Amino acid sequence: MKRYAVEAEGLLELEGLRKQIDEIDREILSLLFHRQETAVSIGDRKKTLGLDRVDPLREKGILQSLTAQENALLKGSAIRSIFSEIISAGRE
């Protein structure tokens, strides 16, 4: 009987952790929407100023700055992959 109580408790904890992940995902998506809106504004401003839409040096600097923040849970290579995709999506 005790085994089932432990299993039930473990399943409840798992469900709580999954709810946390769901909330974090919603927050990330909201931030990505905000980032895209800002990227559109930057693109519009660059167009008005006659500047190139893509700034490879800026993108390189962003990726270097972000990957420098790696830790045991999220390696620089993963950070680079994630943010390369985010930056790419911002260009669309």
> What is the H/E order?
HHH
Write down the overall geometry: elongated
- Model regions low in confidence, pLDDT < 50 over at least 5 residues: none
Q: Which assembly state applies to the chains in this document?
A: single chain
Total beta-strand segments: 0
Number of helices: 3
Helix content: over 70%
Terminal CA distance reads 57 Å
Class per helix and strand makeup? mainly alpha
Care to give the gist of this entry?
Helices cover 83% and strands 0% of the residues. The protein has helices at 2-49, 56-67, 76-91. The model has no long low-confidence stretch (mean pLDDT 93).
Description:
The chain is mainly α and 92 residues long. The chain is 83% helix and 0% strand. The chain contains 3 helices and no strands. The protein has helices at 2-49, 56-67, 76-91. It starts with a helix and ends with a helix. The model has no long low-confidence stretch (mean pLDDT 93).
Keyword list:
92 residues
